[in-house]
Recover the amino acids of this structure.
């Protein structure tokens, strides 16, 4: 679940400094009067179903390259499969956002999970008949990735429907904690199951998708407003291109949200190749494959800590203070990788750096989805995520070229300059500096 709200009437474009004046919040109880999230039945069903699904997906993500290498002995083939899984987000995110705003979001999520389970089930079935080929794996990666696009955008729009706006930061933080822990456990679990039987991790992932379907079926809350759910047949069908333009226009005129989309993409430009950079550095320092795995596990502990403290930080500090500080901490830590005396120092640096990620996510995500009108949630979030994720392939490609033609330290220098340029731009951005907390919406 991305880390990752209900405007029943059309909302005019807000001014640059009026972003936190949300009319709905006057009718929303303060956070202290709301029941805790663990007593929110619909949220806990959504949360628990997705935690199990994340574990299943994480287990197969580590197994996919192992399986492809066993079939083909080709690292390039494994890279192609990974690319096919990520390409659909770039291709389909904009139309998916428009369609998710048209369709019943809960049904979209259910149908996508059923589809992903069916696609994935073909792999152990082909293994049973000794008929699995690399082309089938490619097709599964492309289909599963395409269904994920629709599921993920619908999921982002669903969270503000099952959680009150004042509790969004807490919900995002709780999601990040659970998913960080799941992402630590999943690779080890997947590798262990793969050793017992190559098909077992895929069967486990199929079951995890079906568990997600069951949890969604038991959620009572609708995932969009009544006007969207029941009123579409009474309105003139809008052309999908026009609907996409509405989402683009809304984000473009929201100066703060537009900048946050570009900033998130700029940070992901470096996040995409960080795994490769760490592996090369660790091997240069004499680390074994097991040591490298431990480096990433230790680093993930930082992400868990960041997720735990993210909600409290959001309450105590202004939006701009948090965003500027987290970007600068990341920018200052990154060049230290080049001076790491041991691979354990790499784990320490990455743990501190990854601690800032969930804090950034809690603040920017909860701020963003609280501002977007419900009828635009799918479209605006699809545009945001296209910008946020669209930089990743370029970052990975540039890092690979720099490391191969020069060395890993040239790559670190390049990305350090990139980080500092965006940190300075963020610090100087007046929309970031003047943005307030969601909870201060009524302040003058």
């Amino acid at each position: 679940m991305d880390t990752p709200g209900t405007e029943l009437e059309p909302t005019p474009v807000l001014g640059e400094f009026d972003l936190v004046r949300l009319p709905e919040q006057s009718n929303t109880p303060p956070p202290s009067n709301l029941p805790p999230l663990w007593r929110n039945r619909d949220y806990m069903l959504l949360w628990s179903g997705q935690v199990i699904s994340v574990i299943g997906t994480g287990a197969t993500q580590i197994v996919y390259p192992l399986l492809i290498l066993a079939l083909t002995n080709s690292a390039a083939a494994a890279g192609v499969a990974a690319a096919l899984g990520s390409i659909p987000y770039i291709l389909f995110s904009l139309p998916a956002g428009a369609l998710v705003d048209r369709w019943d979001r809960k049904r979209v999520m259910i149908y996508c999970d059923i589809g992903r389970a069916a696609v994935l089930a073909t792999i152990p079935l082909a293994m049973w008949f000794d008929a699995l080929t690399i082309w089938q794996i490619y097709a599964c990666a492309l289909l599963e990735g395409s269904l994920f696009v629709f599921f993920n955008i619908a999921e982002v729009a669903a969270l503000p429907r099952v959680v009150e706006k004042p509790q969004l930061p807490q919900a995002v933080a709780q999601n990040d904690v659970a998913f960080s822990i799941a992402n630590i456990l999943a690779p080890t679990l997947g590798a262990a199951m793969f050793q017992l039987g190559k098909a077992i991790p895929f069967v486990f992932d199929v079951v995890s998708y079906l568990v997600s379907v069951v949890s969604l079926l038991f959620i009572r809350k609708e995932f969009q407003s009544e006007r969207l759910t029941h009123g579409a047949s009474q309105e003139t069908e809008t052309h999908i291109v026009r609907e996409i333009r509405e989402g683009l226009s809304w984000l473009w005129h929201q100066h703060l949200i537009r900048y946050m989309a570009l900033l998130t993409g700029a940070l992901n430009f470096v996040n995409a190749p960080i795994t490769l950079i760490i592996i090369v550095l660790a091997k240069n320092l004499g680390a074994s494959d097991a040591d490298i795995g431990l480096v990433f596990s230790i680093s993930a502990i930082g992400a868990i800590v960041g997720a735990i403290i993210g909600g409290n930080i959001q309450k105590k500090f202004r939006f701009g203070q948090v965003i500027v500080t987290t970007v600068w901490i990341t920018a200052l830590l990154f060049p230290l990788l080049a001076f790491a005396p041991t691979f354990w120092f790499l784990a320490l640096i990455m743990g501190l750096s990854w601690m800032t990620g969930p804090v950034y996510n809690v603040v920017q995500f909860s701020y963003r989805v609280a501002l977007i009108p419900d009828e635009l949630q799918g479209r605006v979030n699809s545009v945001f995520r296209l910008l946020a994720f669209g930089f990743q392939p370029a970052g990975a490609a540039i890092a690979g070229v720099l490391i191969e033609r020069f060395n890993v330290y040239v790559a670190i220098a390049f990305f350090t300059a990139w980080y500092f340029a965006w940190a300075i731009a963020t610090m100087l951005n007046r929309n970031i500096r003047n943005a307030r907390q969601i909870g201060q919406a009524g302040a003058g």
Notes: The chain has 16 helices and no strands. Residues 1-28, 227-237, 439-444 have pLDDT under 50 and may be disordered. Residues 23-232+240-440 form a domain with the Growth Hormone; Chain: A; fold (CATH 1.20.1250.20).
